[in-house]
Design a protein that fits this description.
By secondary structure, the chain is α/β, with parallel strands linked by helices. The protein is about 50% helix and about 20% strand. It has three domains: about 100 residues, Response regulator (Rossmann fold, 3-Layer(aba) Sandwich), CATH 3.40.50.2300; about 100 residues, Helix Hairpins; about 150 residues, Heat Shock Protein 90.
């Protein structure tokens, strides 16, 4: 009975051997012989079945009968060598023909690595099969080691890039803190004197007997308006400095409870100059507001996700930031109405150095660093389709961070 070939993607703990012979008795005998060897065996009775089996599963060696109807062993070997995915499978020819050196030469010429004559010496055959099984396992171990090495190298590159990015963020935080400190003192001085000026003018107006002439009253109202506008502008500067200090959070390198609304507000303020009149922002922040996290790192993630959302919107659009508790997790989502992430690259956008932006416009590090930061929070970062189009980035972190 012919065994159905397994799927090529099906994992197997044992290396596989393919037996090809049109005589059922020979298949049974070879299968029985190979029971003493640690391997899985697939047996087929024609060349066509053999070629199909080779495409569905990886084999350490193929034991191929030469004399078969429809397609002989030489033809099977020739087709196997023409296909890049099967050309490296070792072939041992088995034949009952002893009278022609030409057949042997033809066998080696078609890609065989060995040629055994029937009746087969079981000791010789088992010895050769074991050699090819060991070679196959050695190649698999080498391939696994190579993949692991590549993964470690990519991880090292990502870690190095994260350190560089963290250093840049630390430098930015120091700059912001320094600027905020230098602005705060003169700002407080100006605000204090502005308030004194307003009170003095109000007292002067109250001390003037009777009504002011029309022109004087107009000038008075104009001065009051200018004072109000000046106070409003200075207030905006004060709020901006406060949000910059909130964003930098130099004193919050460790985990602590912070206000998520402040984090979101500071990020939207910093990126406000990029919204201009074309992008509308919508926020829906539900309890709890205070969440345990690494504040500066979480700000960095939010800044990156919102910046990516801005880049994804070509003309006009909307960026929506939602936050709130879901069960034992705190969830923050950033959705945009931009172009979205193509399905064929969605699994790669979190890889270090992968970017969909034109050359020179992106490093491919932003999302990979964001992913690493959320992993540091014992959480997850997922990218999907936003309702109505665009991208939905979802952050999930435990409400109670493990020690």
């Amino acid at each position: 009975m012919t065994q159905a070939p397994a799927s090529k993607t099906e994992p197997s703990a044992l290396p596989a051997v393919l037996i090809v012979d049109d005589v059922e008795a020979n298949l049974v005998a070879l299968r029985a012989l190979l029971e003493s060897v640690r391997c899985s065996v697939t047996s087929v009775s024609s060349g066509t079945q053999a070629l199909r089996a080779l495409l569905k599963k990886d084999f350490a060696v193929m034991l191929l009968d030469v004399q078969m109807p429809e397609m002989d062993g030489y033809e099977v070997a020739r087709h196997a060598r023409m296909n890049p995915s099967t050309r490296d499978v070792p072939i041992i020819f088995l034949t009952a023909t002893h009278d022609s050196d030409e057949n042997v030469a033809r066998g080696y010429g078609s890609g065989a690595v060995d040629f055994l004559f029937k009746p087969i010496d079981s000791t010789v055959l088992l010895s050769k099969v074991r050699i090819f099984l060991e070679l196959y396992m050695g190649r698999q171990k080498l391939a696994d080691a190579n993949r692991e090495l590549k993964a470690k190298y990519a991880e090292l590159q990502a870690t190095q890039s994260q350190l560089v990015q963290s250093a840049k963020m630390a430098s930015l935080g120091e700059l912001v803190a320094g600027v905020a400190h230098e602005i705060n003192n003169p700002l407080a001085f100006v605000l204090s004197h502005l308030d004194t000026t307003r009170k003095s003018l109000e007292q002067f107006h109250a001390d003037v007997p009777g009504d002011l002439p029309q022109r004087a009253e107009e000038q008075w109202q104009r001065a009051q308006s200018r004072l109000s506008e000046t106070e409003l502008g200075l207030g905006r500067i004060r709020d901006l400095v406060l949000k910059l200090r909130t964003f930098s959070r130099l004193d919050e390198g460790e985990r602590k409870r912070v206000s998520i609304s402040e984090c979101v507000d500071s990020v939207l303020t910093i990126l406000g100059h990029r919204f201009k009149d074309k992008i509308r922002t919508v926020t829906k922040l539900e309890p709890p507001d205070m969440v345990e996290c690494y504040p500066s790192l979480l700000n960095q993630v939010l800044l990156n996700l919102v910046a990516n959302a801005i880049d994804a919107i070509d003309d006009r659009g909307t960026i929506t930031v939602n936050a709130g508790a879901q069960g034992e997790e705190f969830v923050i989502s950033v959705a945009d109405t931009g172009t979205g992430i193509p399905a064929n690259v969605r699994d790669r956008v979190l890889e270090p150095f992968f970017t969909t932006k034109p050359v020179g416009e992106g490093t491919g590090l932003g999302l990979s660093i964001a992913y690493s930061i959320i992993k540091k929070h014992q959480g997850s970062l997922e990218l999907g389709d936003a309702p109505g189009g665009g991208t939905l980035a979802t952050i999930r972190i435990p409400l109670r961070q493990p020690e």
